[in-house]
Amino acid sequence: MSVTTSGERTPPATATLRSGSLGTADIAFFVVSAAAPLTVMAGVAPLAILLGGVGAPVGYLLAGLTLAVFAVGFTTMSRHVRSGGAFYAYITRGLGRPVGIGAALLALVGYNGMEIGVYGLLGSATQDTAHALFGADLPWLPISLAGLLLIGYGGYRSIDFGAKVLGVLLVAETGILVLLAGGVLIKGGAHGLSLASFEPGNVLVPGTAAVLAFAFAAFTGFESTVIYRREARDPQRTVPRATYLAVGFLGLFYAFIVWTVIQAFGDAEIAGAAGKNPGELFFTAITTYVGGWAADLMHVFIVTSVLASLLAFHNAINRYALALAEEGVLPKALGRIHPRHGSPYVAGLAQTVLGTVVVLAFAAAGADPYGQLLLWVNTPGMIGLFLLQLLAAIAVPCYFRRVRHQEGVLRTVVAPVAAAVLLATAIVLVVNHIDLFTGASPTVNTVLVVTAPAVFAAGLALAWCLRRKRPRVYAEFAAEPAE
C-alpha cells in the first residue's frame, strides 16, 4: 500500500514475474541442470556402454540431432506464440483446445513425476556419498525431506537467484567430468586414443536401440526454455538460442564424455569393466587418471547435480501451474506471485507439499528410494514429456497451415514432420526397453507405460467438462496475452 501526496491510500500494484531477468546463458543453465549431466553420465551411461559397446557415444549424438531437428520447428513457432503455457500453448494453437488441455494436464503430471521421483535419488545418492567418504550409513528419508525444504526455498526466491545457484552447481558437475576427460586425454587412455566408437560396424549393433532409449531420456526437460519466456530478455532471440545451446551442448558433451571413459579402459575391455560394476565405472576411471581426491569430489558433485536438477524442474513446474491458474483451469490462488521476489510462490508451496506427500507415502510403504520412488515415479513423467514433444512437433505444421506467415517450408513442415517421425521412434524404443529403466515386473511396467496416455485422456475429459460447464474458461484457454 502506498500513500499519495494528498494523503489517500492506493492499492499496491499487482505482482508480476520478473521480466527481463534471464539471458540466454541463464535459461540454458536451467535446462542443462534439469538434465543433470553428471548424474546421467556416472549413473546411466555405464549401462548404455554395457548394452551398446564402444559405439554407445553415437547414440547420444543421434538423440541430440533428433532433438535439434525438433527444435527447428519448435523455436520457429516460439516467435509466434507468446503464452507462458509452453508446450500446451503450442499444442493448442496447432491441434485445438481439447488436445491442448489434455497436453496441459500431461505436462503438469509429467514434470511433477520427473521432479518428485528424483527426491528418491537425492536420498540414495547422499547415502552413497556419505558411505564412500565417511563410512556412515544415513537414512534416506530425512535427506529427501531436507531436500524438499531446500528446493522449496530456492523456488520461493527470485528466478535470477535460482539462475545464479544453478550456474555454480552446473560448473561444478560439468567441471569434474571435464577433469576426468582431460586426465584420460593427457595420458592417452589405456591403449592410446581410438575412434572405433564412430565406426559403422560398432554403431549398427543390436544394443544400439537400447542405447538410443537411454540417450533420449538423458535430454528430458530441454524444451522447458519456453517456460521462461515471460522472464527472458528479448525472448524472440533468447529462447531459441538457449534451446539450441542446451541441445547442442548436451549432445556433444554426453558423446565426448562417454567416448573418453571408453578410452580410459580400452575398446576391448570397456564392456567387461561396465558389466563388472557399472556404478563404479566413472569413479574407477577418475581415480586412475586424476586421483582419489577427484573421485571424492565426484561423489559430492553428484549430490549437488541432483539438487540442481530438482531446482530446475521445480521452477518449471511452478510456472506451468502459474499459467494454468491464470487460465482458470487450476485454483486462482496458485497464480499468486510474490511481491518482492517475483516468484510463483504459492504454486511452489503446493508443489513442495505434493512432493512431501508422495515421498512420505513411498517411505511408509517401505519402498526403495532408487528402485521404486525414483524409477516408478520418474518413468511415467519421462514418457509423458516424450508424448508432449511428439504432439508439439505435430502441432507446428498444423499451426502454420492456418496462419499467414513468412517462415520457410523447411522450418514449418520438413523439420517438424521429420522430428515427429524420429520422436515417435524414440517413444517406441523407450517403451520396448522399459524394463531396462525400471527393473520392475511386467505388471508394474504396464501400469507405468499407460499412466501418461491415461493422464492425457483425463485431460480430454477435463476439456469436455470445461466446454460444458465453464465455457468462458474453455474459450479463452491458451489465448495470446495482451501486448
TrEMBL record:
Pfam families: AA_permease_2 (PF13520). The keyword rRNA-binding does not apply. The chain crosses the membrane at residues 27-52, 58-78, 99-122, 134-153, 165-184, 204-222, 242-262, 282-313, 345-367, 373-400, 412-434, 446-466. One of its GO terms (molecular function) is transmembrane transporter activity. The keyword Transmembrane helix applies. GO terms for cellular component: plasma membrane. It is a multi-pass membrane protein. InterPro entries: AA/rel_permease1, APC_superfamily. Keywords: Cell membrane, Membrane, Transmembrane, Transmembrane helix. It is found in: Cell membrane. PANTHER family: AMINO ACID PERMEASE, AMINO ACID TRANSPORTER-RELATED. This is Putative cadaverine/lysine antiporter.
